[in-house]
Amino acid sequence: MNTIPSIFNDSIIPYTAVGSKERLSSTGISAVILSKGGHSRKAIFQEIENTGFDNVISIESAAPHYDIEELARRFPFVRFILPEKEINIGEQINLAASDIDSPLFFVLRSDMKIIAGGNARRMAERLIADGETQQSKDKKTGFKRLCTVPIIMNSNYEILPTLISPVTKRRKLRTSFFDPQQESQLSLYPFDGIGIYDRHRFIQIGGFDPAINKLYWQLMDFGFRSFLWGEEIALSLQLKICYDGEMPAEDYTVDENYRRFFLKNLAPVFRREYAHIPYYRFPAYFKNSGEDFLCAWEHFKAGRNWVTMNKHKWKCDGASVIKRFDQNAGESN
Question: Does 295 score more than 70 pLDDT?
């Protein structure tokens, strides 16, 4: 297992930027567009301009781009980020969070369009916490939660089951997908990474793990860690997004990505004020890892060291996270 980043900036890779970083507005929220190859971005850039976000960032692939200069001239308010190498979705979102200044940022795909939610100022105002401001570590953000997810529809405007709940079956962790129904329903993670993130909270929890290459386990790691560390991911009924393209397929394969997720989220034992991975968990991990002894031990030790480094950030254990979703589901029915 690669070394787990101890701080957010550990995972940021070098990049080139084309275009302006000048603020268009001062609403408190910027837009991040994850570019999808072969899909025209002109429509979403025009829509984003009308919505009035502070900044607009488009994260590109590392492949040669022959239309960037033209797009930069046509849409001077967009800042195009070109990583030096191909990076996964989590790394793209991390990179965007490192480049913007707004307290909130809205992650979208280039084959999406916003069909409800109001302008950027209205979106930001809706996410301001009621009453006393909530606190992330030692800095008050004033916003409700780490991530707010929208209702997502297909190209026929049919609502998709994009809220996620963790469930256990025969002592194995699975996920269940269900339709959005009530305001502030919990979701284990933002489907496809789409949502409005509180930038400070996002950085405080370390963002996405760049070494988890499969999107499903990368999102699972981000979501579980968020809830384990006292954060929340929940629905806004006022936000509605439409996919123009095909929905992404989920890859649930249990491999080294799952093992990394397991060590960071399910293996730790929480004891009131801190978490740790006890040594007695190694035999079972080794038996199920499919790795040789030395490789399994090195991965186990790296996970254990990471948990020890962050031990006071835990607010509960994995079983408590699952129980919370069970209770939330009961209240929704």
Answer: yes
Same domain as 220, residue 122: yes
Rounded distance between C-alpha atoms, residue 34 and residue 195, angstroms: 12
Of 293, 223, 220, 232, residue with least CA distance to 261: 220
E-assigned strand segments in the chain = 15-19, 29-34, 56-59, 78-83, 104-109, 112-116, 135-136, 139-140, 147-153, 163-169, 172-178, 195-198, 233-243, 269-271, 274-276
For residue 218, what are the CA distances in angstroms to 149, 211, 240, 274? 17, 9, 24, 24
Q: 3-state DSSP: the chain helix, strand, coil percent, rounded to 5?
A: 35, 25, 40
Same domain, 144 and 184: yes
On whether both 146 and 236 belong to a single domain, the answer is: yes
pLDDT, one tens digit per residue, over 108-157 is 998 888 999 889 999 999 998 864 444 444 446 788 999 999 999 998 99
* Residues sharing a CB contact under 8 Å with residue 19, sequence separation 6 or more, in sequence order: 72, 75, 76, 77, 78, 79, 80
List pLDDT tens digits, range 1-24.
455 565 566 667 888 888 877 777
Nearest to 193 by CA among 238, 158, 241, 257: 241
Structural domain boundaries enclosing 16: 8-243
Would residue 71 count as lying in a domain?
yes
Question: Would residue 248 count as lying in a domain?
Answer: no
Q: What is the number of domains present in the chain?
A: 2
